[in-house]
Amino acid sequence: MEGVLLLNKPAGMTSHDCVAKMRRLAKTKKVGHTGTLDPDVTGVLPICLGRATKIVEYLTAATKTYEAEITIGYSTTTEDASGEVVERKSVESPITKLMVEDVLRSMVGTIEQVPPMYSAVKVNGKKLYEYARAGIEIDRPARLITINELVLLGDVIQKDGLVTFRFRVTCSKGTYVRTLAVMIGERLGYPAHMSHLIRTKSGNFHLSECFTFEEIEEAVEKNELQKYLLPIGNALNNLPKLLIHDTLAEKVKNGAVLELPTQFHDIEAGSPITIFNEEHQCLAIYSKHPTKSHLMKPIKVLYNEA
């Protein structure tokens, strides 16, 4: 049993819960997820099984797209709807669609973001949420994130001193959308929090391709789970690809350093190249050698004689 399962993560489960459930369903210990989603968040969560656990880092690094709802008028401890109220400020003046669009536009590009206290980011060897649960707030270093797209979806609704609207964001790894909601509120002059979130895309994987646990459980009952798994090579189809003959394939399986084909001479050192055999099976991930530019070396050997 190996490949990448595109899970439509349900609300109420942590990413770790989803991995534990897949271990039981697939009857294998080798299961890993490709990017944490908070319990309340739903949507695309690629899960790697078997040998596919070796490629987790290449799927984790991809950009993500989310559709979120922000509520302006009060902030919470966790920056989402599950937290306790920290600050209230009734919105009495109109917040127009134009005002919101101007703020969203101003945040596109590379910006700084301070990770929330309720997060798994480590400071001094301890996760931030551990400090938060102990009632301790500490300084967190700001991190650079990239916002590729940030657009308003639908109308800006103002009622009973609160304002809500939905937005779509495509962003780099490490972006906290709930913190982004707080930042949007701050730029509009009010406390805010993220009231709903769904991940619609992770790298090349779209929500429309994902399966629910109900569908997966049905596949397990029919002994058809493997049909639901993307082959490793398909999951890596966004990376440069090299097709090799069977003689060279034996060297790749043994982790040999190889000549770098001319079509990859301009690639940066360390950039991944997927190596496929004549049966279109992804055997390994190589990269340009850091000191010998005419060679490439293995980063991950996915299939060997073992």
Automatic annotation (TrEMBL):
Every Pseudouridine synthase II N-terminal domain range: 23-177
GO MF annotation list: tRNA pseudouridine(55) synthase activity
Reactions it catalyzes: uridine(55) in tRNA = pseudouridine(55) in tRNA
Keyword field: Isomerase, tRNA processing
Active site, per annotation: 38 (nucleophile)
All residue ranges annotated as the tRNA pseudouridylate synthase B C-terminal domain in the record: 178-236
Pfam family, one: TruB_N
UniProt EC number: 5.4.99.25
Function: Responsible for synthesis of pseudouridine from uracil-55 in the psi GC loop of transfer RNAs.
Family indicated by similarity: Belongs to the pseudouridine synthase TruB family. Type 1 subfamily.
Name of the protein in its database record: tRNA pseudouridine synthase B
Lineage: Bacteria, Bacillati, Bacillota, Bacilli, Bacillales
Primary gene name: truB
